[in-house]
Each structure stands twice: as C-alpha cells, then as structure tokens.
C-alpha cells in the first residue's frame, strides 16, 4: 500500500484451486511442470516487497488433489497438513471453503482448519442446528494505515450437496450465495463501515462476462455474474471453481480467477482517494501473474520435503503385475472406442458393487495408463479423485438419456476428426463428465443432432427395455447427478460403498496379483 497525495493503493493477491500442488511436478512420472505453490510463493513475496500492505487470500479447493494430499489424508494424517504448513509460512490472511475441502470428510477438514494460522471463511455455509456460520466467521476486516478498512467476505458454491458424500456434510446447510452476499455486504458497509469490500467466492461465472448470455445450464452451481449484477457494494470479486483465467470487470466490479494448480497468482489493485474525510475507490485494475520461468521458493520446498519423501516412497510401492498393454497414448481414442483401462475400472466397480452394469470416465488428458509392474503411482495418477462407489436403481430410459448427455462431449463431425464440444470444453475442460459404460452395448453417431446421437442401446444382446429397472455402479459424484446428469438425481441408492475407488482398484490388483488387459468393445463412437 502506497500513500501519495492522499491516495492509497491496496494490493489483493489470490490463489484458487491449488488442489494440493506445492511442487512443480507431475506425480505420474515426476516430470517438471510450470505450476505449484512453491512457485506462487516467489511471486507473493515479490508483490509484498513492492507493496507494503497486501491482502492474501486462498479461494478454496486447497487440501485435495495430489498424491501428496491424499497420502496425508488417507495414509499418514498425524502431522500438520503439508499444504496448510505452506500457507501458514506464507502468512495468508484468509482461506475460503471450496467444495473439494469436504472430500476427505469432516474430521480432515476440521483438522486443516484448526492447524491454520488464518481464518477460514464462508458466509453461506451454516450450522443446521443453530443457523450460525459453520466455520465461525463469514468475513474478516483488515485494517490498514490511515484508518482504511477492507472487508473480506467468504462465499462457497451452494451446489455441494449435489456431489458430496452425505456423511461428509452432515449437520451443514448450504444457503443461497446471492442472498448471503446481499446481507453481509450491506452489514460490512453499514455496520462495520468498511471502505473496500472484497468478496471471495469459491464459484465461477454462469454467464458470458461481456454479453451476459448463459454459458452453462443455470443450476446455481456458479453465480459470479449474478453477484456482480445483483449485490450492491462489492468492489472486487475473487472467483474460482471453474479453473479459468480471468482478469476483467463486470458491472464495475473487478473480477479475478487465477486458473488452477498454481499456474497463476491473481492480483487486483484498488486505488483509494481521500475525499471529504472519507476514502473513496477511484480506480481498480486486475491481472494474472504467471509462474512460468519463476524459481520455486527453496525454503518451502524444504518444508514440504519430509512429506514428499514419504509420498514418493508410497507411490513406488508395487501392488501387482499386468499382462498385455494398458498404456494410454491417445486420450481421444480412449473415448471413441473402448480401451482396456476403462473396461478394467468398470470391471473393478462391478466386482465390488455386485452388479452387471457400470460407468466411469477418463478424467483428464494427462493419464498415462498402467505399466507392466503396477505401483500405487499408476492407480492414483489415473484415478485421482477421492470418489466413492454407489449403486443406484435407474430405468432403461435413464440409461439412454445419460448416453445422450455423454454424447454431447463431441462437437458435430466436420470430416476432420473427433473434437470436444464447447459444452464440454468451456469455460473449462470437463473430460470427467464423459462416461463410458460396461454391461450394455451401444453406439453413438456424432453426425446426428444432439439428443438423437444414440443409435442403439442393447442389454444382453437385445434392445434395452426403457421401462425396465437396472442397478448401475458409478461414482458418488455422478450418482448425485453431478455433471448435468439430472436423470440420476434422487434415484434409490441400492448400495453405498464408502471406500475410495482408487483404494478398490488397488485392493483388486493386490488380490489378483496379476491382471490381464482385456477389451470386449461393447461400445463405439461413429460418424457418417
């Protein structure tokens, strides 16, 4: 913060969707990557040197996402959470609760919150019994020289009950984000008398920032545009969840979203001027600072090292052998004709669920498949989410509708190969929402219009009966309707297996000793 001719500039720094990334590596093979909190730290320290007073905020989805954080949560939770250790060392001012904070259960989340030297905020996550903010504080106020007060309000996407394991959010209410923001921003302005309001929202934008046209189904998962348009008094809106890179202005509100995994640091500057004894916002700017070429902070690498050594040792533990080839060389080919690794994961799900039908996804384009000597690293770098397994009872019509939803992954065929549609690539890639099924046979034709792409669906060699009931294994995110699979919402849960699917895969391989790469090619994607 600099003062010059009765002017003050406040610098706000944002990280979001770090997903446990401290080191600049890919855990699949430990190759170098331009990302991570150790690199971000160098940028934070530079900004602090150049701007005496700053506000540093993490905007959620912090404690889940890498083998490092998984190992801490599931294998060795005795020490301080490694990523919290780093945020403490960097003296963050606040953290915002993200949806993935709940993935490891309330005990692990409570542990992370207790270990933090900074408050965790969320104004719209409430204690069901009392109605009070569940994490204690809806906001913090930071006081600067010359009497300037900045209010930081925390908000979290209220869509979490659609995805999360119910036991992880027991006793918690997720209130409407816009209504909560209207109440608390007014409180910050009128009661607390702050000069600047920064709203940090673990959620994204549901509409195009320029045209205002919907950019996704308006489910309430993302409400950033509404916050800018309907909540009076927000100066800066920090966003996340969608993994986008945004530095812009919407309806006079400065908005930021700094990507994910620590690829960028978000920076907003608010210039205030003293007018009639009051500080008034005169100008706002936003930018994204890339970590490309930035040296990681050596002291923080050292801090993470004991955890990293344990994690790498765990990742290299052999669990079994493979006959055949289960490597992924072309992610798109995995999604157009059944691949051995998809069949294998579905087989594992069917084995533990005791059913004949299953679906799963290839979560991203960085999965490399399994090596001949299979290690824990192979499993967790290909199945990186802490999803659990559910069996829900659905109809043949639900299956057909789900396949039509999945078929929207592909752009209309243009004669030049398979491409991902805008719906599944913007505002962020959603490879994890393209499902592939085992136990049924089907064909998708991407030359046909959306909603009519499923050419045929068979069960046990005959056309599927649309009114018939089927028990299907899938991950808990999908079973709750996540990814716009509304046909699965509210369906009877026949079996709930509260074990991470990655653990089930590991157990299956260890039980068998040797697994075989097989594929029955029960589905395909075609074009005219």
Please indicate the percent range of residues in DSSP E strands (runs of 2 or more). 25-35%
Please identify, by name, the CATH architecture of the largest domain: 4-Layer Sandwich
Provide a count of the helices. 14
**What are the segments in which pLDDT stays under 50 over at least 5 consecutive residues?**
none
Mean pLDDT: 96
Q: Assign the CATH superfamily of the largest domain.
A: Metallo-dependent phosphatases
Features:
seven-stranded mixed beta sheet, alpha/beta, 5'-nucleotidase,  domain 2, Purple Acid Phosphatase, chain A, domain 2, globular
Descriptive notes:
It is built from 14 helices and 31 strands. By secondary structure, the chain is α/β, with parallel strands linked by helices. The strands form eight sheets. Strands 1, 2, 5, 6, 7, 16 and 17 form a seven-stranded mixed beta sheet that branches. The chain is 26% helix and 30% strand. The longest helix has 18 residues, at 298-315. Helix 2 packs across helix 7 (298-315), helix 3 runs antiparallel to helix 7 and helix 9 packs across helix 14. It has two domains: 2-310, Purple Acid Phosphatase, chain A, domain 2 (4-Layer Sandwich), CATH 3.60.21.10; 319-526, 5'-nucleotidase,  domain 2. The radius of gyration is 24 Å and the shape is globular.
